[in-house]
Amino acid sequence: MAVLLFGYDVEATSALKQLETEHGIQLPASWDAIKMLTQIFLLKMEEVHTQLEAPCTLFIVGRVLEENIDAFQKINKNKLFEIQQHTYSHLRLKTVVQENKDGIQVFPGGTLDEIKQEVNKTSELMKKHLDVDCRGLTAPYAYYQGLSDRPDILKILHDAGIQYIRSYGRNEHDWQPVSFDIQPFWYKPQGFPEILEFPFQGWLDVQWREEHGWKNTEGYLNYLKSCVDLVIEKDLIWGYGSHDWSSIYEDPDMNIIKEFIRYAKDRNLPLKTYGEYYRLASHGLHW
Questions:
Q1: Domain contains 235
Q2: Domain, as residue range, for 13
Q3: Residue 73's closest CA among 5, 131, 142?
Q4: Given this model, what pLDDT does residue 12 score?
Q5: Dihedral over Cα of 137, 138, 142, 148: its sign
Q6: Residue 287: what pLDDT?
Q7: CA atoms 10, 16, 22, 24: torsion sign
Q8: Is residue 287 part of a domain?
Q9: Residue-level pLDDT at 36
Q10: Which of 83, 173, 278, 286 is 20 to 30 A from 182 via CA?
Q11: CATH number of the domain that 191 lies in?
Q12: Spatial contact of 27 and 245, defined as CB atoms under 8 Å apart
């Protein structure tokens, strides 16, 4: 049965330098204004998802949590939402060698010690401020084949209590789109049969909108609708990836997301959090 897994990376303040230098996105210069992006997003996102009764998972950067504790505590009270992590500072777990029309760019990954510190610190912050036992993680930037080639990183995540991850988000060129044929899989061959990979297929919102224009909101919505049609036709699991800042960039009312959810619901495509689907999959259900 086809399923839409809805996830946001909440990262604005920590990803600011990367957004400016690597994506050319001009965000407000004031640090307070940047922090407001997250709060504006959370308010609008909660409004949209609550109105449409659409569950989702927020993968939050630890530093962003520290800067918006009250806002996340409020969100955490809404049963539609699941909160998991996105490292402490938006640290890449692996090096990305991105090859596209602009040539080849290399984005270095962190060391094993840095990864361990960032993941553990963020889990501790989530427990302290939200009383959440962190079980899920989205890997910043995502990678070709996820963490299939890095059992050393998987061990760090396993030891930190992570059970499901989103790290497969690039194709063989460390770019996009990712084929929808890539479906969730367990890291059993690597020695971690209880860790489930949730790839995010197709284009991430940032990359599609950079390629086709940020003001082309209708075009992006039509693309999302075509993905809904595809996953229903082929009976697939779709891990949809979006971000806090990009969801309101040139679309402050989140009309793209609003109409996307409505279309999925009109087509009877179930929406689930990643945690909910992991629990079903770990019991051999809904697979």
A1: yes
A2: 3-282
A3: 131
A4: 83
A5: positive
A6: 45
A7: positive
A8: no
A9: 79
A10: 83
A11: 3.20.20.370
A12: yes
Give Cα separations from 197 to 86, 188, 210 (angstroms): 15, 11, 26
Two structure tokens written together for 30: 């004031």
Say how many domains are in the chain. 1
pLDDT value of residue 29: 55
Q: What residues contact residue 266 under an 8 Å CB cut-off, 6+ apart? A: none
End-to-end CA distance of the chain: 8
Amino acid identity for residue 63 in this structure: R
The confidence score (pLDDT) of residue 216 equals 98
Dihedral pair phi/psi, residue 40, rounded to 5°: -60, -45
Q: What is the reported pLDDT for 22?
A: 59
Give the separation between CA 49 and CA 200, rounded to whole angstroms: 20
CA 224 – CA 201 distance, rounded (Å): 11
Q: What is the mean pLDDT, run by run of 10 residues, along the chain of 287 residues?
A: 97 65 58 74 98 99 95 98 98 98 96 99 99 99 98 99 99 98 98 98 96 97 99 99 93 98 99 98 74
The single residue listed with the structure tokens 């009109």 is 266
257 Cβ contact partners less than 8 Å away, ≥ 6 residues apart: 45, 48, 242, 247, 251
* Paired tokens of 274: 């990643």
Specify if 62 maps to a domain.
yes
- 219 and 212 Cβ atoms separated by less than 8 Å: yes
232 domain residue, yes or no: yes
The Cβ of residue 112 has, within 10 Å, a number of other Cβ atoms equal to: 14
